[in-house]
Write a structure and sequence with these properties.
The protein is of the alpha+beta class and 189 residues long. The chain has a single domain, classed as Hypothetical protein af1432, CATH 1.10.3210. It contains 8 helices and 7 strands, in the order ββαααββααββαβαα. The strands form 2 sheets. A 4-stranded antiparallel beta sheet has the order 1-2-3-4. A 3-stranded antiparallel beta sheet has the order 6-5-7. A hairpin with a 4-residue loop joins β5 and β6. α1 crosses α3 and α4 runs antiparallel to α5. The radius of gyration is 16 Å and the shape is globular. The termini are far apart.
């Protein structure tokens, strides 16, 4: 476990699967109450399923964090991130489907950046994974059979800022077409 803020503890274990779809199936099985919200997003924006899968590949379900609403024990960070995204999507229900999609992506990506700011993962060979580098954790863990030795918070590491991580996650999770759509939405297109 890694202590982060006074009230947040971040943990790291092996991912439950090497398949991002399995991680998402687990999330959905545990979130039956928001099935309608998930379906609405995926009907409005079929590409959102791919974005969710890429988020699962990027951060996996190996990181654990307290739930966003502060109730219960640690949950996979992936679940917390998706919860934030779906909550934002649902809260924007009265807005256009474009604005709801933007709310989902902004909330999910910024939650990854906020929680992982300053975090670096190191394996036994002292190779590191940092969330702002744009490489998914699932691939890093799979390359060379990395065995995680430690997860550290390096608050002085200026490259591991929330904004840099949010940008890296968006860069990985979004295709060029997705980025263009979101840019149009942001600029009222």
């Amino acid at each position: 476990m890694l202590a982060m803020e006074a009230t947040m503890t971040l943990g790291l274990a092996r991912p439950s699967s090497n398949d991002p779809f399995d991680m998402l199936r687990t999330f959905r099985a545990q979130r039956k109450r928001i099935t309608a919200v998930i379906r609405r997003l995926e009907m409005d924006w079929p590409c959102s399923a791919e974005i969710q899968c890429r988020l699962a590949e990027y951060i996996t379900d190996a990181f654990t964090a307290p739930p966003a609403k502060g109730r219960g024990g640690p949950i996979p960070l992936l679940h917390r991130v998706l919860d934030r995204g779906f909550d934002a999507y649902n809260a924007a229900l009265l807005q256009s489907d474009d604005q709801r999609f933007l709310a989902f992506t902004d909330a999910a990506f910024s939650e990854v950046g906020r929680v992982l700011a300053g975090v670096t993962v190191t394996d036994r060979d002292n190779r590191t994974w940092a969330p702002s580098r744009g490489a998914p954790l699932l691939i890093w863990l799979g390359s060379g059979g990395n065995q995680v030795e430690r997860c550290t918070l390096q608050s002085g590491d200026r490259t591991q800022t929330s904004a840099a991580i949010t940008s890296a996650v968006a860069g990985f999770a979004l295709t060029q077409a997705h980025r263009e759509i979101l840019m149009e939405i942001r600029h009222g297109g």
